[in-house]
Description:
Layout: H1 10-18, E1 19-21, E2 26-28, H2 29-35, E3 39-44, H3 48-51, E4 57-60, H4 64-75, E5 81-85, H5 88-95, H6 99-119, E6 126-129, E7 149-152, H7 169-178, H8 191-195
Parallel strand pairs: 3-4, 3-5
Antiparallel strand pairs: 1-2, 6-7
Amino acid sequence: MHVQAQDNRRATGLREMWDFTGENRTETVFASLPAAGYAVSLAGPFLSYLQTQSVAQRFQVGSNQDAFRILYDRLYQPASGLAYVVLPDFRFAGEQQDVHAFAEALTSADHYLAQVQHDLGANDLLIVTATHADDPTVSTTPTREYLPLLAYSPSRPIGHALGIRRTLADVGATVLENFGLAGHAAGHSFLNEITQ
């Protein structure tokens, strides 16, 4: 995915991914889902932007292991909703330019994601991406580069290329469409590309 915004601050990608334009004002996906009756859980080492999402259930986590524990807990809840989980080990390793720690975080994340993928329900949707890049081999943080996008649903286990997305807002648009709320999304949903 390409970051459409021109500035290079850490929260820029986060806002671009989850803000969308309503008829009269800008509203986030995190506010729209609870208004429609869906639970929203946020887990991560919080930026002030996430702290302002008062309608969401928030969890402070300091490691990828803690973050995945929250994701597993949300996965097994009977209520439908969104769990947005930040994996802090990548950020910490990138900021400290610790290539070894970054590699360890990748290995453990692969292990945890395999379990999540195995436990997903038929109608669940998993999106793995980033809101910014912290490259442990360079001192500039965040870096300006394309961000990864992996999407998986048990309803379509066959791989499919999604191409280069022009904005991170495509993730927010996809989540909104998944819950039937795509009316005013700023991005372009790729839901039909992974479910048909």
